[in-house]
Amino acid sequence: MMEAQIKRVHFRGILESRGKFTVEAELALQDGSLGWASSPVAIAPGRREQRRSFIQTLGPLNNEAVFSELRRHIENVRFDSQAHFDSFVAKIPAATELGADVRLVLSVAFCRASAKSQGISLLDQLVRLSGGSPAVSRPLVNIFSGGVHDSTCKVPFQQIMFTPDFGSIRANIEAGLAVYEAVESRLEKSGREFRHSASSGMQLSGVGYVELLQELHQVIGQMNYPREKAPLAIDVAAEHLRTENGSYRFGSEIVNGAELFERLKEIAQTYNVQFLEDPFDPADEELWRSAARQLSPSTVVVGDDLFSTNSANIKPGLATGILLKLNQVGSITGALQAARTAREAGLVLCVSHRSGETEDTVMCDLAVALGATYIKVGGPRRGDRIAKYNQLIRLAEQLGQI
User: Fold this and answer.
1) What is the largest CA-CA distance in the chain?
2) What is the sign, positive or negative, of the torsion defined by CA atoms of 19, 16, 143, 280?
3) 92: helix, coil or strand?
4) 52-79 tens-digit pLDDT
5) Is residue 395 within 8 Å of 364, Cβ to Cβ?
6) What is the DSSP string of 183-249?
7) Is residue 151 very low, low, confident or very high in pLDDT (cuts 50, 70, 90)?
8) Which value, in Å, is the radius of gyration of the alpha carbons in the chain?
9) Of 139, 256, 277, 387, which residue has the fewest beta carbons closer than 10 angstroms?
10) How does pLDDT run across 278-305, given as a tens digit for each residue?
11) How does DSSP assign 5-21, residue by residue?
12) pLDDT tens for residues 161-177?
């Protein structure tokens, strides 16, 4: 990368998709190249995630003392790489005080501005930084939401998803949309009340997870999709199910780790689950290792809260896949390092959204630049989610993989 000097940084408070506050940054280089970024917000961050700021203002933030101090350290400084910039920002006390979301928007804005300065796309810039082979990821389409998304719901799982594998992003999105709309239509015709969660999955009060899995399984079966091309995915989000004594809340029951494992094995086999995310609390490492060894090779055991996009947390044998979330680590460099470490450990990559999203689609460019197997952007409802699906279509066209 060519050397870049920061001319101006501007911060503002904006709204994320749930109507809550988050942060956005604009960054200008000396040559006039501009970059911007906004940060998503988790509904229930894992305990291993880096702390974020709590923005309380809409509009310009530059005059707030801590933001003013951060700008003072960055403006007029020259950087010779993305890693140099991210490392520099991480050492500024004001950046540490504010949190990972502020560091992230600076990192992504710098990455966008640097790409423009070189006359290349953000995707090409991320490919250069990662050294990978770009490929369009398979979407994990959120069909049903439960867990922390709805305290009145009997569904312990945070998300029940459909992950079509029809060979192209166009075919996968079309299949995902067809299944989502078919489920939605069945619910409406049956008179069952439902609403859409923050991540656009459907929520039904008083309905258990078995009924929802059966509903989705039946819809897919009626479409005559081949079994191998139409698997399911489940985000257990077990850290949020764990009790103080180490057991797990599973619907109306309390089960121990071994019992939870047996339930999940049966569910994975019965309902063709190919992607099982956070089946246990991060502290239950032996259960993680057992799942990675004992579940069918066709089922990826994915660590989210377990790894928190931090290369220091990645240990061989704990899982067979990893979720990458940019705002967990707070920089492009940190996410790329986690991806490299994960690949070295043989893990399948998935790049993920958060519950509170913005119109920023950098996660799509990151997933495609890494050639991640999966991408998780929610259900095909709401503009913030649709923006991600649309960006995947653009990136596929750019790569000639539509």
Assistant:
1) 62
2) negative
3) coil
4) 888 989 999 999 999 999 999 999 999 9
5) yes
6) HHHHHHHHT---EE-TTS-EE-TT--HHHHHHHHHHHHHHTT--GGGS-EEEE--GGGTB-TTS-EE
7) low
8) 21
9) 256
10) 999 999 999 999 999 999 999 999 999 9
11) EEEEEEEEEEE-TTS-E
12) 999 999 999 999 999 99
Partners of residue 141 on adjacent β-strands? 162, 378
The stretches of 347-382 forming alpha helices (DSSP H) are 362-370
Task: Give the separation between CA 322 and CA 124, rounded to whole angstroms.
Answer: 23
Give residue 169's identity as a one-letter amino acid code.
I
- Rounded CA gap, 188 and 199, in Å? 20
Q: Scanning the structure block, which residue is given the tokens 């929520």? A: 203
DSSP class of 351: E
- Taking the C-alpha atoms of residue 170 and residue 378, their distance in angstroms, rounded to an integer, is 17
| Cβ neighbours for 152, distance < 8 A, ≥ 6 positions apart | 205, 206
- Asked if residue 366 lies in contact with residue 351, where contact means CB atoms within 8 angstroms, the answer is yes
> Residue 74 forms beta bridges with which residues?
none
Measured in residues, the chain has a length of 402
pLDDT in tens, 295-334: 999 999 999 999 999 999 999 999 999 999 999 999 999 9
